[in-house]
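>> received
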Amino acid sequence: MKTVAVIGAGTMGAGIAQASALAGYEVILYDLAAELLAQSLDGIWASIDKGVERGKTAATTATTAKSAIQTTTSLETAAHADLIIEAAPERLALKREIFTRLDAAAPEHTILGSNTSSLSINALSGATNRADRFLGVHFFNPAHIMQLVELIRCDFTSDETVTAVRAYVEQLGKTAVLCKDTPAFIVNRVARPFYGEAFRLLGENAADAATVDNLMRSIGFRMGPFELIDLIGCDVNLAVTQTVYDAYFQEPKYRPHPIQKRMVESGRLGRKTGHGFYTYEKE
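>> returned
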């Protein structure tokens, strides 16, 4: 495996592209508009430079990684890679459409992977004719830093596909954990009560967001729930919560909270918009 294509140049896609390039892979980064790609590339380069400044990345590695990333607005061009990781918004119909086009354009050996955090891998693989070479490859935000990657098999994923993608993840210096195709997989399933109870506390005026976050950090969490939601994006958090809620046939313990919906409707998505539960200076 030499070439990795990343479909979607947002926060997650950029992080996956950066991690792949730093690990020595040739990277094709796809998005709809050249302006989005230019903005994403600027962010990737700035992040790589920061790693050099902090002594975590060798200058020669940084230079090689920067030259290893090419961008394209052609999905068919991006399809010519050994591994393709889709990092588009969490909408089933959109992702299935992307995979249908990728499947038609990609070489026979190409493995297709989705970075979805909650959608069914079986449902996504059904949009292709290569379910044996399809799986979930779920990174966590920020993708170039977080060490865990969930590998999610659909019912037809071959052992060879799992072995190849596990090797890719390990080449990135990350830890792969193999999951079954169940709603929200492992981490997001576990995380639902973490967010849900925090929203209930906030909704019942038991404490404000900063107090809840401070309390969680005081017992060892790196970030509180509202800080983490702002980092991930309130829209992403709501979409995942809604998906899990629906997947479990409206099981009450997974029910989204009205505060989530209100935050999204008002455009307070967190760091990416400059305002969520906290206010951030735009870079």
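>> The chain has two domains: 3-179, 189-272.
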